Amino acid sequence: MVVIAHPQAAPPLDIDAGAQAPARRTLRAQVARLEQQLARLAVDASPRDEIAWAIGSRGGPRLLGIGELERIRDDLAERLHAVREALATRAEREARNRELLERMLRDPARHRYVRISAADVGEPGCGTWEARPRLGLIGMLMGWWHVKLSSGCPLAEGR
Q1: Are 82 and 119 members of one domain?
Q2: Are 27 and 69 in contact (CB under 8 A)?
Q3: Residue 115 backbone phi and psi in degrees, to 5
């Protein structure tokens, strides 16, 4: 037996819908501006930031009421604020790590076995800087320390 589902009839339009048009237009412009700002921040972020970018809508395409538009605008504003905070926190952490790397390069003996990855300073790639003794145990006993940059990238493996 085949059951054919009939779509629900749309609710009747308000007579006052014409008065809501300017408010809806303003809210749609605000939502568009917030979506554009969120998209610009997506360029600055990296996958490791784990930020949810999906905008999504509930219920598919339809004419949104003023209440729904306000809810979407408020949700976008909150997400935009959270993304900006996350990116600011990342920028501060990377700046601290760059300062640590500079100190480590100037005086490796004071930063023994400290390891900083390229991702920690906001660089692309998978390299790491590490303060290590030259010549292994002999260098450690003699106080010969240097900062070694390794590629850190894993070798390609066969099947």
Answers
A1: no
A2: yes
A3: -125, 130
76 token code pair: 């976008």
| Closest residue by Cα to residue 27 from 65, 60, 80, 83 | 65
Q: Is residue 86 one of the residues assigned to a domain?
A: yes
CA distance 109 to 105: 10
Residue 41 lies in a domain: yes
Q: Read off the pTM.
A: 0.67
Q: What residue numbers bound the domain in which 123 lies?
A: 107-150
What is the number of structural domains in the chain? 2
Tokens read off for 13: 């339009």
pLDDT digits (tens, 9 = 90+) for 84-115: 998 899 899 999 999 999 999 999 999 989 99
User: Residues 153, 146: contact at Cβ < 8 Å?
Assistant: no
- Cα of first residue to Cα of last residue in the chain, in angstroms, is 51
Residues in Cβ contact with 97 at an 8 Å cutoff, skipping those fewer than 6 apart: 116, 120, 121
Query: What are the C-alpha distances in Å from 61 to residues 57, 98, 132?
Result: 8, 47, 60
Is residue 26 a part of any domain in this protein? yes
Distance of CA 67 to the CA centre of its chain: 29
